[in-house]
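Hi everyone,

Forwarding the result from last night's run.
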Amino acid sequence: MTDIEIARNSKLTPITKIARKLGVPQTELELFGNYKAKVSSKPSPREGAKLVLVTAINPTAAGEGKTTVSIGLADGLNLTGKKACLALREPSLGPVFGIKGGATGGGYSQIVPMEDINLHFTGDFHAITAANNLLCALVDNSVFQGNPLDIDPDRIVFNRTLDVNDRALRGVAVNHGVKDAVEHSDKFNITAACEIMAILALAESLDDLKTRLGKILVAYAHNGKPIFASDLHAQDAMAILLKDALKPNLVQTLGKTPAFVHCGPFANIAHGCNSVQATKLALTFADYAVTEAGFGADLGAEKFLDVKCRMANLKPNAVVLVATVRALKLHGGADKKSLTTENVKAVKKGLCNLLRHIYNLVNVFHLPTVVAINRFTSDTKRELNVVKRAVRLYGVEAIECDVWGKGGKGAKQLANKVVQLCETENNFTFAYDDNDAAEEKIRKIAQKIYGASRVEISEKARNSLEALRGVCDVDKLPVVIAKTQYSFSDDAKLLGAPQNFTLNIRDVEYRGGAGFLVAIAGNMLLMPGLSKTPNAVNMTIDSDGKIEGLY
């Protein structure tokens, strides 16, 4: 057994002690065993508490350790005498059994109990799946039971969901061959991309949750009238299934740092942030709240800033941009097989990706930024120095971190820099204005953040927008763009910092309860598929229940 496995399997601190250390009252804890708890405290961010966002460059398929750095940074802040708390997303079973495996950090920078968090945890994802599919059942039942709302089965727009990567469910027939029932087409989204996930992540109370659930657009009548979940009187039943899932979960890092882990929308096909309640609870009980946004800064950070911060009235004090030499080589044209050998030329060419993200954070959003180089053992001094010199020309510092091998001790220099940045004033601004038309918001994200030269909105997308203008005030809503995480563009093969490309928007969907539009770019799908050799087939469990291959 390795030292890291020994650390992960060593006796954890009871969650009651972690909560006491954080300042959460015992009466506001709902225990799930000894090391997990729901927290029912009402968020009330303390004056002067600092919000630190951790994001990353466009990743390789293996990811660049953004969660690992987030955990190490929070541990590092505590080691420097600050009171820090994490606010992270919950892992989805899709990636866990798909390509990436677990999503709880790595090495000595992990949240624990790792197996529980990566699997069923406290049942939040299952509750979301159940509430989503209950609404679907109520819609189809209404059609079956005389169709009092005159629902057009061919215009049902709310889809079923499942927290598994299953491409076979991207298109299904409902009621196929069922006597006296109306057959119609449907599809499954993965739970992390469904609207209920977004609603739970943005809701700030049970009443807010119910209101948002009632605003879900489910279908259109034959005469074109929009039909909402409230027309089916579904919101209370759905809220009953979600009442416990609404409460953030409290766990700990290997370094004993408290961590709120709650909700898990993907950043490539959803809005990519943990819950507003979890973030605000971290700001309530700690002086430094460290949170992350999924995938690259063009996706997760943009949505965190333009959607979550806008809706929840949050303002980050500093941004940590995670980069790896490995990913820079990939963006510089290196062969995937040679990412672990020295290649200074590829690093130099790949810097364009990192530098564009820095430019966006500093010059578009106007936020104090530091680059965290998540160091791998294969990185050479020459390669690391190339990165440091390049970002210095942009007025930003790059700091090496070894949080995988050293935990919080490997992030103390980064933690000190973050504290310094948090004390500076910033003029945080959004990438687009509230009153911009929907098409203009899409264009501004594409051109200001992605670097696109133009945006092509398909006829289908334009028709969808036109139809939605009869449902809601489309031009008052934030926009979430669903696109590949591997590129600034909608083409996963365009690495680096592509220019003179067109962003293609093939459709636009309305998330009435969440309160935003989803613009689907390129060939992005809301139900991922499994690879040829999924991570699931490499997992084992022995007669004592010990799991291997999950990490």
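Residues 50-122+256-422 form a domain with the Rossmann fold fold (CATH 3.40.50.300).

Cheers,
N.
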